[in-house]
Amino acid sequence: MTQEDFLNGQILLIDKPLGWSSFQAVNALKWAIRKKFNLKKIKIGHAGTLDPLATGLLIICTGRYTKKIPELQGQVKEYTGTITLGATTPSYDLETEIDHHYSIEHVDNQLIHSTTKHFLGTIDQRPPIFSALKKDGKRLYEFAREGKAVAINKRQVTIQEFEITKINVPHVDFRIVCSKGTYIRSVAHDFGKALGSGAHLSTLKRTKIGDFNVNKALTPDAFKEKLGMEI
To answer: Is 36 buried (19+), middle (13-18) or exposed (0-12) by CB count in 10 A?
Structure first.
């Protein structure tokens, strides 16, 4: 692709590595494009954040296509991952340490499959306290890290599909198709509550956004290679 291609607008599919923030992924591409074409600046942004502990599809728009970001953010998303039963964490994932353990002796495959039905359709969901949502001009995770309690309102999200793909208790693998704004960490936490076993999200990968698939995505390093940059 040429300098003009990036300035006029590109939709880039990136497979975000584990441990990277979405901001880091955008900056890696921004640096590579600017250096390759000796540009002082270029418009670039992503269409939907992924947590550092999540991997998978990140859509990055350049140039004039940054105007498409709101439209892309609103598309249906698909995730796969693993819920671990028997323990909860304050962040609902592995960002924080386990705070409570629960018995899972009563949990069987039938109960796991039947419980998914309670999460289908439009549901009320409370976002995690460890999230980037703002309240009173401050990120929720800032309150959490300061140890301050804060009221978080529930909001409506839609889960179109919730498929259990593998059960090896305490680990439950899943595939979820959902609307914009759905927190899979909250699904994991609430799923554990519904099972009476506690749970947290242990792995997460975003596989689709609308018609875009992670199978067509490049890692940031592969993108740099494609541009002819040294890694």
So the answer is: middle
DSSP string, 103-117: --TT--HHHHHHHGG
What angle do helix axes 220-227 and 22-37 make, rounded to 10 degrees? Answer: 10
**Whole-angstrom distance, CA of residue 34 vs CA of residue 191:** 45
pLDDT tens, residue by residue, 65-91: 999 999 999 999 999 999 999 999 999
Separation of alpha carbons 69 and 47, rounded Å: 5
pLDDT in tens, 27-48: 999 999 999 999 999 999 999 9
> Annotated active-site positions, please?
51
User: For residue 73, what are the contacts with CB-CB under 8 A and spacing of at least 6?
Assistant: 47, 48, 180
Token representation of residue 161: 């599909």
Query: Are 63 and 12 within 8 A, CB to CB?
Result: no
* Beta bridge partners of residue 134, listed in sequence order: 139
CA–CA separation, 85 and 103 (whole Å): 9
Q: The whole model's pTM is what?
A: 0.93
